[in-house]
Each structure stands twice: as C-alpha cells, then as structure tokens.
Recover the amino acids of this structure.
C-alpha cells in the first residue's frame, strides 16, 4: 500500500515535474515506441526473515507492484541519475547527501520496513540427461521491450515476481482482490516456479492468463498436462527437485531476491518454447562453465542471476547428481 510510505515517490514530484513512475513510463514509451504495459498487480511483499535451525522462515504481506516501482526501482534510477546526469563518481556512496532522497543509510538495505520490498524468485534450471550423463542449464536473455525490469540482461530462467495470479477484472475491485482465493493458492515458491516455467519456457503465458479469467489457471486442458508433469515430478522427487539456495538484495533497487534451483530430467524439457519475455537456450553445464561465467564478471548477467550461478557452483556436485540419489 503506497499509504505506508507517505514521504516516498508515489505522489511526490521528483523528476521534471512528474513522479518517478510517470517519468519511467514516458521514457519507456520513447525508447520502444509504444506505451509500456505495466500492470499494478498484487504481489507478496517480504516483511521479515527469521532464521531457524534448518531453513529461514519468510514472512510476507500483501502489496502492489506500483508501490515497488515507487520505493525500490526508483533507488536504482536515482543512482543512475547522479552518475550519468550529475556526473558523480560514486553515486552509491552519496547516502548522506541532502540530494539523495531514498538511499540515506547503506545498512537500511537489511530493513524491510522502509520500502515495498516485493520479492523476486530466480531459478537456475539444470536439465539432466541421465542416459548420456550430460547436463545443461537454461540461459535467458531478457527482451528489450516486453519485460518491465532488467531489459537486455542475461539471467536464469524461470524468473519473476512472487505474486498471486488474480484476474484483472478482480484487481480493480480492492475488496474482491483481497478476498481472492489466489492469495492462498499461489502462496508457494514451488507453484511460482512451476507457473513461471510454463509461461517463460513453454510459452503458455497467454493460456494461463486466459484460463485464470475463467477460474483456476491450472484447470485448462492445454495447461493441465505440462503442469502436472512438472509439479507431480517435484512432489515425487524422482524426475525433478527444487532447491532453496538463499536470499540476496539487489544492490541498486534493494529488492529482495529469492534464489532457487530447479533440477529436471530431460524428458520434462522436450518442448521448450520461449515466450516474448526473451530468448533462452540450453547450454552444456560443467564446473568449468560455471567458473568461467563467474570469472568473466557480471557485466551482462543480472545480479540475482549471477548470485544463483555462484551458489550453484558452490553446491554443484550435490545438485548435478541429485536425481540419481
């Protein structure tokens, strides 16, 4: 809710007499020649990370996407503005400058109460051919015009915002949106990974959205088979396993990123077809390949994707052979 942040960007005139989101939309329209299709959908906002003996316990609240743009993405824009327009050499070190509206204290990145910290879910996918003992990873180059964030970066796939799939006609009615059963149905990292895999890697996004307008998106016939093939395999942990690798924060936007891995048998990746969000390809995966990516640096890789690469490299042998355990 933007009202949680009365002093930050939502209604604040900031750049050239407009709020950051308005400025952002105008810039994207000039860049692509068409109005960006940014949608103020509902999302899960990370509120607290509680360590336990085995796994971190994550606490979430309901939120909306535009509030993320106005309180997180604007921080990256502010740093870029200081560097490219004002020619500051170290924009991230200007935290205590009076000109800096959002990034006052570096330690505040670990506080989840000063911004609408909608979480991203980033999944390094490993495809294993157990007959040939070869493994591949899915590398994704994000589109210039069809994604709202991180355009033209190299990334892992699937990847997306942690959010429930609420029909657009319901989103416009706040009471109905907050009462939607999608909040409970989609409140699962596994469900989010599976849905994003179907959308980005099997090009079923339009079918999923259409099905969701008429009820549960998982019930449409064209979706049922691939959905159950992957989801049931994850439940059985025979042909697919999912791993939670860790949590990081984007240094520029301060967005929390949930880092995961998906290991699947090649039979579940026979019909890869990329949607309009970008172009992907399977790349032979070895420890040497991972080390080469890390040594070359992060110029093209999105930081969350590179974090996945580093964590997969750290746990490579366990992940690479987990389907044969």
């Amino acid at each position: 809710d933007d009202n949680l942040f009365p002093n930050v960007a939502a209604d604040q005139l900031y750049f050239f007499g407009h709020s950051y989101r308005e400025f952002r939309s105008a810039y994207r329209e000039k860049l692509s020649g068409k109005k960006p299709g940014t949608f103020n959908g509902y999302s899960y906002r990370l509120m607290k990370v509680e360590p336990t003996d085995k796994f971190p316990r994550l606490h979430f609240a309901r939120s909306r996407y535009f509030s993320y743009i106005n309180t997180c993405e604007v921080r990256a824009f502010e740093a870029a503005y200081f560097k490219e327009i004002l020619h500051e050499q170290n924009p991230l070190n200007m935290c205590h400058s009076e000109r800096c509206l959002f990034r006052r204290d570096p330690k505040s990145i670990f506080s989840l109460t000063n911004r609408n910290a909608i979480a991203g879910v980033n999944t390094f996918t490993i495809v294993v051919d157990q007959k040939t003992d070869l493994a591949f990873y899915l590398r994704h180059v994000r589109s210039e015009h069809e994604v709202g964030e991180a355009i033209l970066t190299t990334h892992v796939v699937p990847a997306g915002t942690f959010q429930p799939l609420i029909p657009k006609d319901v989103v416009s009615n706040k009471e109905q949106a907050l009462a939607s059963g999608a909040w409970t149905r989609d409140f699962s990292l596994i469900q989010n990974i599976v849905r994003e895999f179907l959308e980005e890697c099997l090009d079923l996004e339009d079918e999923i959205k259409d099905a969701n307008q008429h009820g549960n998106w998982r019930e449409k016939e064209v979706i049922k088979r691939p959905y159950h093939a992957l989801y049931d395999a994850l439940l059985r942990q025979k042909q697919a396993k999912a791993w939670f690798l860790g949590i990081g924060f984007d240094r520029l936007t301060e967005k929390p990123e949930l880092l995961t891995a998906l290991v699947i048998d090649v039979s579940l990746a026979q019909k890869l077809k990329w949607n309009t969000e970008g172009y992907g390809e399977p790349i032979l995966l070895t420890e040497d390949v991972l080390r080469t990516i890390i040594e070359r640096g992060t110029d093209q890789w999105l930081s969350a994707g590179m974090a996945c690469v580093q964590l997969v490299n750290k746990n490579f042998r366990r992940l690479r052979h987990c389907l044969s355990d």
